[in-house]
């Protein structure tokens, strides 16, 4: 988020907002300036003129009071529209990105955008209104006596220098608070994903410890951030007080020297107060805004479009040579060389921990191997890198969305609606659909879980079928489906001309024989133990 982004969100409204704030500043300055005539008439005993100037001042004050909330309302509307655009850009980024965590997305879309709203966008109201008032107050003081401007200028330099003491510390404290919030959200995601297991084994105390540790760190980071803000405000306030008192004292000397009138002395003090209070507000706002610099840079980076994310090329085969994967804990696993040609039906087998799912991550481009070469082949045999490959993938844990079963299969592509009947028959989903009143138009309820594990897997298998990817990776895709139905589904799949690489356990010998061949992985890990299926 930047000021340019805020203003460009709705340029006509931005212009109108600035006009409203200008009107607010003019009314405030004019009301204060005209009050000097009321003071002078009061000292001369002109009661009727004194009342007249009070009435004029009252009318101007009403306009001033009305303009500020109007400008504030419109600017807050501008902020929300800008945030809406940023959220859309962030979601496009995460949609195109291969690596992300839900907790990171939550932190960016919720906590970090709230910080930007409170500590960057909203303070611009203070900056604009006070800067306009300061400029007009300086111009008015110039009409009273030139020495007042000189004094204010010297004091202003001192006041403006003080905030630099805290800028760096305040920025660091804001970035640290954001970091600790992201860690806390990550802990919530990791532990609450297994909440039912913790309840089953009465392990709530461990959950409390895990959340408590990160919660205390987050609380400490927020306390430190507020502490830095408080110190910064105190330093700014000290400079402001010195400036106001000094200006009142100097204008008092001018009055006793008969250079200015009592009314001039009064408004000189008021305008000095406007200038230094305004400077204090502007400096506080700017210090607050500077504290978000790292955060704004991070979000700006995330909202940049990801280059090279174009539609991939459909693949029909794959080759792997000298493939080796290195884990963060130092363990590594090597894979045998293999080639899968167009139309091959291959069963990937091996004991738990031999790296079957890890191999799939490599093929999907989610994990970069330490050494070796992986490339896919197009229909004509052309080599395709994993980053540019388009292939079908069905995971053990079926990913569904809160929409109709039909849309979950077609993935919202209406052109595929005509193929629904065929694919639901191929994956044996028709008997399951018959149990629902709305059948294929039943809405998937992710909270209540109205589809069983097997039914969810059938929906995802139908999704892979209907999109006609020529190469399919299946990772325990029928683990929740009974053996008889599994035999029928896999049998139908193997009768196609698709290239299939499938991980599965407990297949019957008859079903295994339907595959062209097996790639059997053996444990060859070095150092340590790694969970992988």
From TrEMBL:
One of its GO terms (molecular function) is ATP binding. Keywords: ATP-binding, Membrane, Nucleotide-binding, Transmembrane, Transmembrane helix. CDD domains: ABCC_MRP_Like (cd03228). It comes from the Bacteria. This is ABC transporter ATP-binding protein. It is found in: Cell membrane. SUPFAM superfamilies: ABC transporter transmembrane region, P-loop containing nucleoside triphosphate hydrolases. Pfam families: ABC_membrane, ABC_tran. Residues 15-291 form the ABC transmembrane type-1 domain. The keyword Nucleotide-binding applies. Residues 318-531 form the ABC transporter domain. It is a multi-pass membrane protein. The chain crosses the membrane at residues 15-38, 50-75, 134-162, 235-259, 265-286.
């Amino acid at each position: 988020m930047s000021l340019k982004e805020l203003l460009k969100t709705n340029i006509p409204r931005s212009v109108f907002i600035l006009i409203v704030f200008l009107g607010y500043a003019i009314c405030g300055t004019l009301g204060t300036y005209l009050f000097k005539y009321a003071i002078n008439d009061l000292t001369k005993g002109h009661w009727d003129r004194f009342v007249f100037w009070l009435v004029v001042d009252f009318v101007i004050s009403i306009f001033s009071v009305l303009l500020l909330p109007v400008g504030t309302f419109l600017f807050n509307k501008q902020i929300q529209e800008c945030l809406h655009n940023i959220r859309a850009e962030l979601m496009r980024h995460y949609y195109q990105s291969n690596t992300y965590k839900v907790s990171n997305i939550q932190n960016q879309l919720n906590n970090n955008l709230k910080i930007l709203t409170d500590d960057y966008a909203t303070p611009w109201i203070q900056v604009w209104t006070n800067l306009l008032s300061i400029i007009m107050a300086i111009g008015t003081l110039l009409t009273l006596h030139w020495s007042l401007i000189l004094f204010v200028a010297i004091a202003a330099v001192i006041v403006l220098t003080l905030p630099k003491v805290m800028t760096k510390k305040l920025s660091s404290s804001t970035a640290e608070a954001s970091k600790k919030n992201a860690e806390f959200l990550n802990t919530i995601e990791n532990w609450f994903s297994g909440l039912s297991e913790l309840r089953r084994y009465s392990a709530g105390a461990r959950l409390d410890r895990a959340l408590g540790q990160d919660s205390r760190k987050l609380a400490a980071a927020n306390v430190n951030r507020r502490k830095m803000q408080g110190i910064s405000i105190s330093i700014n306030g000290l400079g402001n007080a010195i400036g106001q008192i000094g200006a009142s004292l100097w204008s008092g000397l001018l009055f006793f020297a008969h250079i200015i009138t009592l009314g001039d002395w009064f408004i000189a003090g008021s305008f000095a107060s406007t200038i230094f209070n305004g400077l204090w507000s502007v400096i506080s706002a700017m210090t607050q805004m500077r504290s978000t610099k790292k955060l704004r840079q991070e979000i700006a980076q995330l909202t940049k479009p990801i280059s090279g994310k174009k539609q991939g090329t459909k693949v029909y085969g794959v080759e792997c040579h000298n493939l080796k994967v290195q884990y963060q804990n130092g363990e590594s696993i090597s894979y045998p060389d293999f080639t899968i040609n167009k139309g091959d039906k291959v069963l990937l087998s091996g004991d738990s921990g031999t790296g079957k799912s890890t191999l799939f991550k490599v093929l999907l481009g989610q994990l970069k191997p330490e050494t070796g070469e992986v490339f896919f082949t197009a229909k004509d045999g052309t080599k395709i890198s994993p980053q540019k490959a388009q292939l079908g993938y069905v995971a053990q844990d079926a990913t569904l969305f809160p929409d109709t079963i039909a849309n979950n299969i077609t993935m919202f592509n209406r052109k595929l609606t005509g193929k629904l009947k065929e694919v639901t028959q191929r994956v044996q989903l028709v008997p399951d659909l018959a149990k629902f009143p709305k059948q294929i138009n039943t809405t998937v309820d992710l909270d209540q879980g109205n589809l069983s594990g097997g039914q969810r897997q059938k929906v995802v298998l139908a999704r892979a079928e209907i999109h006609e990817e020529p190469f399919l990776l299946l990772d325990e895709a029928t683990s929740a489906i009974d053996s008889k139905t599994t035999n029928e589904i896999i049998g139908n799949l193997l009768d196609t001309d698709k290239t299939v690489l499938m991980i599965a356990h407990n297949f019957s010998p008859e079903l295994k024989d339907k595959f062209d061949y097996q790639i059997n992985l053996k444990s060859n890990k070095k150092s340590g133990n790694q969970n992988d299926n």
